Amino acid sequence: MSSSRVLVLNSGSSSVKYQLLDMRDSSRLAVGLVERIGEETSRLKHTPLASGGESREWTGAIADHEAALKAVSAELTKDGLGLDSPELAAIGHRVVHGGKHFTEPTVIDDAVLAEIERLIPVAPLHNPANLTGIRTASALRPDLPQVAVFDTAFHTTMPESAARYAIDVETADAHRIRRYGFHGTSHAYVSRATAELLGKAPEDVNVIVLHLGNGASASAVRGGKCVDTSMGLTPLEGLVMGTRSGDMDPAVIFHLARVGGMSIAEIDTLLNKKSGLIGLCGDNDMREIRRRIDEGDERAQLAFDIYIHRLKKYIGAYYAVLGRVDAIAFTAGVGENAAPVREAAVAGLEQLGLAVDAELNAVRGDEARLISPAGARVAVAVVPTDEELEIATQTYALVGKGNG
Ligand code: AMP
């Protein structure tokens, strides 16, 4: 029997999200998540899409990632899709930080594990959880290829002029300080899908991708390769996000420490968890912010305006970096759903060939679509991202040959 299934695992510190896909037609057989691992009230939600069955939910204590994966496997087994199936070709893991080293999806062995571990100082929140997921999955199926797909990989093509901070080179190198970028799997998928929407090859198209979710990042993609992106050493740099500040004068940190008396840990929490939209107006959900604006709420309006101002600056910056832009693609929760954000982001940029058609912008849907007026010089597109499909595709491309 051919092995055509790929299990995609996204392991966080207290959660595991998973999808099982059949790569013959890229269909989803099952999706689910385990949350609050390590607590008494862990929750597993499993949806067996292949059989069209109802979602199953279970709440109880799930002690650790091993118990979580075993619970997932038990759910999959009920649908005849267990992890022990010979039809499973590989497990693809989302790994947040691959540093400079990992430029492509990589079959995991001891050396790869050691390198992901070595990168923990630059990804202290994410890489340990990703490693736990990999080790747990490897223990359950030691015979199966495990593949790491890195959030940073797509950005490793950035030139040094974009990747380096203008700080002392020896200090930067000693601490591996450079701009790595994140959301790379999404930027890769969306830039390719945008070229497809235009009926062109990725090599022939320059795209600005705006990944606007709770975390948000922009990238400049020339001929299928990333040449700049807004996140840096960590996901804190760049756009205004749900709870992160994005760009600001680094001296704000010295000021908060010296004058505000805050500790480094407190400042870290402030900038990553209590800033951005939530810091500005108390809400990080764009739906709620729009609702408040409609009611005349001035704080919500100011938060929206700051968000849009930053977004517009990045569109302008990446336009200049690319020189010629064929398309701007909006993606992720805000980018795919918030028409007022898309409208405001390109408002007044007609001189750059940028505009949205109000009627097309108002259309909702799951498909990639154009929202610019017919004949526009630069296409503006809404392109739903699909990071799990991209991870499965990259994983299968690496290990699928010889299986099927
Ligand atoms: P993501 O991180 O890609 O899952 O995006 C999550 C964010 O998308 C939420 O915090 C919301 O701000 C935003 N979002 C989701 N649905 C909508 C919607 N219908 N309208 C506006 N914003 C939305």
- CATH topological fold name of the largest domain: Nucleotidyltransferase, domain 5
What top-tier CATH class of the largest domain fits best? Alpha Beta
Compute the gyration radius: what is it?
22 Å
Number of beta strands: 14
Helical fraction: 25-40%
Largest sheet, described in full? Answer: 8 strands, mixed
Domain unit count: 2
CATH superfamily heading of the largest domain: ATPase, nucleotide binding domain
Describe the protein.
It is built from 15 helices and 14 strands. It is α/β, with parallel strands linked by helices and 404 residues long. The mean pLDDT is 95. The protein is 37% helix and 20% strand. It has an 8-stranded mixed β-sheet with strand order 5-4-3-2-1-6-8-7, sandwiched between helices. It has a 6-stranded mixed β-sheet with strand order 11-10-9-12-14-13, sandwiched between helices. The protein has helices spanning 65-78, 110-118, 127-140, 160-163, 169-174, 184-197, 251-258, 264-273, 276-281, 286-294, 298-322, 332-337, 339-346, 358-362, 387-399, and strands spanning 5-11, 16-22, 27-35, 42-47, 56-60, 88-95, 106-107, 146-150, 206-212, 216-222, 225-229, 327-331, 369-370, 379-382. The longest helix has 25 residues, at 298-322. It folds into 2 domains: 5-150, ATPase, nucleotide binding domain (Nucleotidyltransferase, domain 5), CATH 3.30.420.40; 200-387, 2-Layer Sandwich (Nucleotidyltransferase, domain 5). Residues 213-214, 242, 284-287, 332-334, 337-338 line the site of adenosine monophosphate. Adenosine monophosphate binds next to helix 10 and helix 12.
